[in-house]
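Hey, sorry to bother you again with one of my protein questions. I've been staring at a protein lately and its backbone has me curious. I owe you a coffee for this, so here goes:
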Amino acid sequence: MRWPFDNTFVRDLGWLGARVEPVPVRSPELLALNEELAAELGLDPAGLRSPEGVAVLAGNALAEGSEPIAQAYAGHQFGQLTPVLGDGRAHLLGEVVDTHGRRRDIALKGSGRTPFSRGGDGRAVTGPVLREYLVSEFMHAVHVPTTRSLAAVATGERVLRGRPLPGAVLTRVAASHLRVGTLVLLATRGSREQLADAVEHVRARHYPDLPPHDPMALLSAVVERQARLVARWMSLGFIHGVMNTDNMTLSGETIDYGPCAFLDAYDPETFFSSVDSTGRYRYSAQPSMAMWGLARLAECLLPLAVGEPDALMTEAQERVEAFAGIHDQWWLDNFRIKLGLVRVGAEDRELVEDLLGIATAETLDFTGLFRDLARVLRREPTPTLDRIEDVPRWEEWRERWLVRLDGEGKPVWSSADIMDESNPVHIPRNHLVEEALAAAHAGDLAPFEQLLEVIRSPFAEQEGLERYAEPADPAFTRGYVTYCGT
């Protein structure tokens, strides 16, 4: 089959990585194929399912036009700079221009050792590969900028992660795999010319409307996209879990779903990642951690800016600090829509914050809470809200909200429809993900396939699938830990 590769990264920045091929696996077997995404990329789903297609998706063969490379980058891991990271278990196969005219990377993850493996085996485990497949597809379904999963392939090999586990390779699609850490590497270890070339490549690929050779304009553009992205995460109760600078894309897409999870009971201090012992990347800290990473980006771009050093430093700081206001506005806009509000009201922030205060005090399920609010307007059962013990506090808030909705000047059913189009009923709930992964580990893909089908239609009530909308037992959540895994 034909893969319409056109590899600008290799042409422009081929020195920014190691030209190595994926390492073949013993017995590749297709676990999942995203046919809709394949067609969008201009690829033939039937060809991808063929033995020849699966061989490419496993790393056992190269498609014509592929120029595999393991990209180099650095990263601040939990605040500490690791000077050289790079793709230790991934290979960028190449780029295609999809049917919408968008340039997309196609990369393998778990595809074997590279010069950046640092003693690792370069492989991935089936569970984390399928987790990324599930969560990235959900994020796409709820309109969050994200990398996507084209395919998951079992390798027929065991990977040692404390104990032998079944291996797999993920095919990941991204606007690009360029990260804040890419520029950190060049700012700390490369030449000024290399840094300038990489920055211009980023601008031309992701921000073509910006003037060339204007690093401060690029900084502001990346700040804007990251602010909007994190605001969307917050509105969904998503906890990334590992917001290191090597996991912050310059395109503004969500990348790396290793230890990610979602809120059940609302607690802004929640974190689950096994490697985040202090809660650095807890739910409530995600905006400030994004701004911290953007400050590292500003440090990289400053050497390319023209002007008086102190003035440039002040300007860069102001552009980074603009994140707070941009994020705050998008956060409020997202939550306003979650309450069925379209017009801007002076009391909206207080309304949202007071509701979240109730959710915290009552340990309400975050997803169920907002779905129930639409049911209030339709006079339907409200299983999440029925758990509230401080009823007078809730009723006082509800009356304020209803008065605010009345000021919108539209029927309440219209507001309820707006809410149901914004508030998912189904998310990749942590217990359901773990259930699906455990079954897949035992060779049963049916729970994974069922959960994937449900979360691809996240806003639709689905008869007979009510358990997919229910939160986990509190005992599960109290002991829940996520792992980087892949």
Remarks:
- Residues 341-420 form one domain.
- The chain has a mean pLDDT of 97.
